Amino acid sequence: LSVALCAGAMCCAASSAASLHHDYCVIGAGPSGLQMAYFLQRAGRDYVVFERGHAPGSFFALYPRHRKLISINKQYTGKSNSEFNLRHDWNSLLSHDRRLLFRRYSRDFFPHADAMVRYLEDFAALLELQVQYNTAIIHVTLDADPQAWNGHYFVLTDQNRQKYKCSSLLVATGTWVPNVVNFPGSEYVEGYETVSINPEDFAGQTVLILGRGNSAFETAENILGVTNFIHMVSRSRVRLSWATHYVGDLRAINNGLLDTYQLKSLDGLLEGDLEDLAIVKDKKGKLHITLRYYLENRNTSAGIDSITLPQDELDNFATRAPYDRVIRCLGWKFDFAIYNRSLRLMPGKGNKNKYPQIKPNYESRGTRGLFVLGTASHSVDFRKSAGGFIHGFRYTARAVHRLLENRHHGVPWPSTVYPITQLTNSIIKRVNEASGLYQMFSVLADIILLKENATAFEYLEEYPIGVLAELETQTGRKAVNGLFVIIMEYGRNFSGADKDVFYYNRAVGEAQHAWQSNFLHPVIYYYKRLPTEREMRLCPPDWPLPRPDAIHHIVEDFLTDWTAPNAHILPLRRFLENCLGTDLRNFFAESCFLFAFTRQKLPPFCQQGYIRMQGLVGTRRLQGHAMEAGLLENYTVTGFAGDRLLSSHEGSQDQDHTMITRQDHTMPVRPLQHVVNAKDE
């Protein structure tokens, strides 16, 4: 017996020794897995990506079945700013390599899925990412160790029983398990993942589609012109993306069936709980829709003639006509099967049950060190923002990487310190070009941390607002003197399946009504101190953040160009000044010179510029421009009349008068009573 035990221990030790260790293990080489791999590689971290397929992006090799992506690929925006252009490029991953922009792989506004497959292959190859292909992880468990980063290691086992030990686990597998509803007769239903995509196979047939998402309408669009008619049934009403402002809802490219339904061309939409349905097949192979309770206590094998159908009691029952085919298009869910119970990776609640439960920092609620990336992390912003799609999760993956860099390697969240005079400019620049703020509206925010006495500020980009209360521990930055939070928002009551987003007077144009803006626009929250976790928990459900000390909406703009001096910049600057109790205007040297003699405290612009001999050196052209714009009076000295100075408008034409034109605005020569303040810009 002792020999047997010893042998077992030796086997265990050998197995442990054979385990391969990495600091970071990424499961899945789809877009989110490759995006995280890029950031880990750029940081010089020890990582590996496991991919069960022979190439990255295996999901896109099959889906969408009809091969047209619904993520836009806008070639032209009229601007050369690469950050701005990412606002309208929903397919590219983030990288330093300009060759890896998706517009180089397709010119189609809605690209072919094969272009995405090629793009992901090149992304992994050109950047030399550490991807281990043909490796299917079939089991994940924990190995407790107090010396590990998180108090345990993650032990992964592949299809060849090879084990891998990881300090941190990043799950990027997406949602790929088809949603299936079981009801009597569901064995007659074809799945979206296997149904024919050849329209001729449906010629002259009557089809019922279960589901009402883009996959359902995509399938209907493909066969719309060859079927007798198509019916579509789901438990919820159709949600149009232009009304909900959620890109996962029905897109216009797939909604042809709505036309044929509302214009009475035989096709139609129905609402009902799929679990209440039942399908009965007759001798001719036709499929009849009935309700589950009609089949209770009945022998369905006895034949259709002995089964009561709804039309037997209600002769105008909507689905009384038999169908040739029933197709299931109900989307996908996360695969929980490979995770041991010790990880406590649980499904979400309600309509989020297809995703794992995670915190706002994308870390599992049950296990420290396990982060979920990509589509599977969409529970954080489901039906609110773009975190389930490439143009959203490319930014959340970067945010997770920055959180990990601070937690495990002591690298604080990237930031830049500016003098307070640059506050207005910094905000205007970001809201006009930042793509992360724009795509992940109401989820990622720019954070401005004020320095003591508001003389400077520290700017952090695209931080997850769900963990705002933990900002100091998550970023390694201090927020002791107050902060501004900049996010993008739609109007409170402008989004919803039942909303008319095309109503008259839907837009706001006046700055004083900016708080009523409906379309996506910047909102600035001001806090004198960092909100607490309790305040975050008690935040109203329709508010992304707790009640601030002050709030400012920059009025919506038809061109999404928030650079108008009067409508956008001036109200913002005055809001910032009111919060800080300071003057954020820019001044000419004359004004700063006057303030130095007439005020106890100079404005920050004069303190940080004029007094330190910084700023533009005056020239004839600059002075002339200022006078033409009405910013300065023309007090240029042109000569002398006896012992009296002549201004330009009263100077003599005598050629003997000496021209004295001041070239340096920092050294005024005229009397103080002639110096005027720069007008409010």
From TrEMBL:
InterPro entries: Auxin_biosynth/cation_transpt (IPR050982), FAD/NAD-bd_sf (IPR036188). GO terms for biological process: ERAD pathway. The keyword Glycoprotein applies. Residues 1-17 form the signal peptide. One of its GO terms (cellular component) is endoplasmic reticulum lumen. Its cofactor is FAD. Pfam families: Pyr_redox_3. GO terms for molecular function: flavin adenine dinucleotide binding; monooxygenase activity. Probable flavoprotein which may function in endoplasmic reticulum associated degradation (ERAD). May bind non-native proteins in the endoplasmic reticulum and target them to the ubiquitination machinery for subsequent degradation. Interacts with SEL1L. May interact with OS9 and DNAJC10. Interacts with TXNDC16. This is FAD-dependent oxidoreductase domain-containing protein 2. It comes from Crypturellus undulatus. The gene is Foxred2.
